[in-house]
Design a protein that fits this description.
single chain; mainly alpha; Heme Oxygenase, Chain A; globular; binds fe (ii) ion
Length: 274
């Protein structure tokens, strides 16, 4: 079945859409095409149909994606246009970095929580960090990093907060239900990563919506936001296409990530800082 992505949006139109109308178009697009709901891999995971080996493989592929979030959030601050935007965005950055940098009782970095999840699947840290990845993961994480670094802040916020962070809380709440019913072999101490994102991203989505809404006055900026949303959806689909094909034995090409991946291989510290 053919789905034409974003066909309702009029690129030729000169007048900007009403802000509510524009955001409604974005929401409809996102809700109908979010990988977790419509991609075969998302459905398979959510339906509780994955084998332990498939779950482990998926985790090693998703690691570099989730480990990139601190850089993405840092670029949201770096590319902000005002101090008040930076003040709004520092909270989500701190959450990604881990609130344990401020207080011992805080939450670890989200990348660390994901490694805990991997450990609960039976994967050692070295196995995750030394795993080979499929080409579509390379493409997705390097391209998301490029958009975060090079494009205006509201474009990357559209990519992340209006798409993923909007859809993820409900997706992860369902996934947590699936863990409790279908993946009972995964210990609950490993699910903190999903528990945190099932709630915290609700606030991030609202915050991102406010920031993006402040750039909706011109059709030119609406075009930029719409293209960012489309790229975001496409990147996730491509990423999971590659992972799913490899999971089902249809794709055998792998890459061992270079040092500092997905950033440039140089310069890099003499010893990994961790
Ligand atoms: Fe996170």
């Amino acid at each position: 079945m053919l789905t034409l992505l974003g066909e309702k949006y009029d690129w030729v139109r000169e007048q900007p859409y009403d802000a509510c109308e524009f955001l409604a178009l974005v929401d409809e697009l996102t809700e109908n095409n979010f990988y977790g709901r419509v991609h075969p891999l998302g459905k398979c995971l959510l339906d509780g149909q994955m084998t332990p080996d498939e779950m482990r493989f998926l985790a090693t592929q998703e690691y570099y994606y989730y480990a990139s979030t601190t850089w993405w959030n840092a670029f949201k601050l770096a590319n902000s246009d005002t101090l008040s935007q930076q003040r709004l965005l520092h909270g989500p950055l701190l959450e990604e970095l881990g609130t344990d940098v401020l207080e011992d009782s805080g939450t670890p970095a989200h990348a660390e929580l994901f490694l805990q999840y991997c450990e609960s699947l039976g994967l050692k840290r070295d196995e995750v960090l030394g795993a080979t990845i499929v080409p579509s993961v390379v493409l997705a994480v390097t391209e998301l990093l490029r958009i975060a670094r090079e494009r205006p802040q509201f474009e990357f916020i559209a990519c992340s907060n209006l798409v993923i962070e909007k859809m993820r809380p409900a997706f992860y709440r369902k996934l947590l239900d699936t863990f409790s019913v279908n993946y009972t072999w995964v210990p609950t101490w490993g699910l903190k990563f999903y528990e945190v994102h099932a709630t915290s991203d609700v606030g991030h989505s609202t915050l991102g919506r406010r920031l993006v809404a402040s750039y909706l006055d011109s059709k030119r900026d609406q075009d930029a936001i719409m293209s960012a949303v489309l790229r975001s959806l496409c990147l996730r689909h491509v990423m999971y296409d590659g992972i799913f094909a490899a999971m089902k034995g249809k794709q055998s090409l792998r890459l061992k990530p270079w040092p500092n991946f997905p950033r440039e291989p140089w310069p890099r510290p003499r010893q990994a800082a961790n």
